[in-house]
Amino acid sequence: MQASGAIVAEDLVKVYGGKVTAVDGVSFEVPHGQIFGFLGPNGAGKTTTVSMLSAGLRPTGGRAVIDGLEVSQNAEAVKRRIGVIFQESTADGDLTGRENLEVASGTYGISRSEGHFRAKTLIEEMHLSDAADRYAKTYSGGMRRRLELAVGLVHRPKILFLDEPTLGLDPQGRAGFWGFVQKLRAETGMTVFVTTHYLDEADTMCDRIAIIDHGKIVARGTPNELKDKLGGDVVTVKTAAGASDMSEVIRPLAGVSAVQRQGDSYRVKCTSGETLVPLAVEACYRAGAGVTGVTVKRPSLDEVFLEFTGREFREEEGPTATDKAVMMQRVRGALQGRR
Ligand SMILES: Nc1ncnc2c1ncn2[C@@H]1O[C@H](COP(=O)(O)OP(=O)(O)OP(=O)(O)O)[C@@H](O)[C@H]1O
Ligand SMILES: [Mg+2]
User: Fold this and answer.
1) Sheet (strand 191-195) strand order
2) What is the C-alpha separation between 284 and 279, in angstroms, rounded?
3) What are the distances in angstroms from CA 216 to CA 14, 23, 304?
4) Mean pLDDT of 138-144
5) CA 323, 326, 328, 330 torsion: positive or negative?
6) Where do runs of H (alpha helix) occur along 189-272?
7) CATH architecture label of 7-227
8) Is residue 56 lining ligand 1, measured as CB closer than 6 Å?
9) Where are the domains of the chain?
10) What pLDDT is stored for residue 196 in this prediction?
11) Cα dihedral sign, 154-156-159-164
12) pLDDT score for 335
């Protein structure tokens, strides 16, 4: 494979302590300027992969190449090119938001005056102006995530790694966060690698997606390609009450793979809902049944995920690692608030 993309993983392997194979031969390439989603259930190997790509963890096998640089041989140069926002909160609660940003600037060798300027700009962009001079420990979960994003961007990275960046954020917080990431991407052509548990988020935000399970990639493609692999759309056709059975009228239509009748409704699996709708409506009218309603449903990424990993996103008994992380964030917040 030619290492020309912004992020290249070649047969990456990580075995912890000689026993736990967390990542088991993962390869992919992310072109410059794309948003790449890495999805997988708890323990699939997402954070381990991010750590190897971002020079935080040495692979047991294979190699990672960032912006043309082999990570294991150029760790410092790679770190200057990337921003990383980890799953675990990394903001220093005993510093203000502004101080967090200025300290981060300093670690990248950015001058004090430039550091002040960048901190000010990022604070405004992240809508943290009112809280900029408060200790970060007083921030809400959403404010903290925005601050962490700002910290990850202070050195203007070409490539951004986000490990479950919107974990625990409310829908408004998630929308705001993604709005900003998209704006940055549009303005700077930044490449984004994101792991997420929110499938709807991956669906709307990512150019391409890979699904990882037990350390191996089990599916990859654009959100639409992945949905297509499930065998297309489901069209529901509702006929006027008392109309005769239309199953055999709909079944022979182009692209139809299955028809299920439930009273006056027909659930039709087909390759393309858009193509089928006019055909089905016309065929039913010709056969003497008026159509009173039609809906088209494309399979969601939830179903794709289920199909390729064989389980729901949160099938485990009891709280998952993600739930625990959210709980810990709250507990930590509550404790810090009391101090
Ligand atoms: N430092 C470590 N030592 C030993 N095993 C580890 C270590 N870190 C992770 N693992 C194991 O490696 C596997 C992959 O973990 P990883 O954190 O990469 O998963 P993940 O996909 O990020 O999960 P989550 O969705 O819960 O964040 C898991 O089985 C985990 O228990
Ligand atoms: Mg993780």
Assistant:
1) 82-85, 159-163, 191-195, 35-39, 208-213, 216-221
2) 9
3) 11, 7, 16
4) 88
5) negative
6) 199-205, 223-229, 247-250
7) 3-Layer(aba) Sandwich (3.40)
8) no
9) 7-227, 231-298
10) 84
11) positive
12) 54
Smallest Cα–Cα separation from 33: which of 155, 188, 225? 188
Is domain 231-298 in CATH 3.20.20.70, yes or no? no
pLDDT in tens, 195-227: 987 788 888 899 999 999 999 999 999 998 888
What pLDDT is stored for residue 312 in this prediction? 55
pLDDT at 247 over 90: yes
pLDDT of residue 332: 53
Mean of the pLDDT values across residues 227-253?
91
Q: Which long-range contacts (CB under 8 A, 24 or more apart) does 90-94 make?
A: 90/148, 90/151, 91/136, 91/139, 91/144, 91/147, 91/148, 91/151, 92/136, 93/135, 93/136, 93/137, 93/336, 94/135, 94/136, 94/137
Cβ proximity of 281 and 294 under 8 Å: yes
Cα separation values, 160 from 7, 66, 86, 180, 256, Å: 10, 11, 11, 13, 43
Look at ligand 1, atom 8, and give the residue with the nearest C-alpha. Answer: 48
Q: Read off the pLDDT of each residue in 7-31 and give the average, rounded to a whole number.
A: 97
Using alpha carbons only, give the angle 114, 118, 123 rounded to the nearest 5 degrees: 150
- Contact in structure between 62 and 255 (CB atoms under 8 Å): no
Q: Is the CB of 44 under 6 A from ligand 1?
A: yes
Say if ligand 1 is within 6 A of residue 143 CB: no
Count the helix, strand and coil residues of the chain and give each as a percent rounded to the nearest 5. Answer: 40, 25, 35
Most confident of 54-68, 141-155, 296-310, 318-332: 54-68
For the entire predicted model, the pTM comes to: 0.78
Q: How far is the CA of 122 from the centre of ligand 1 (A)?
A: 32
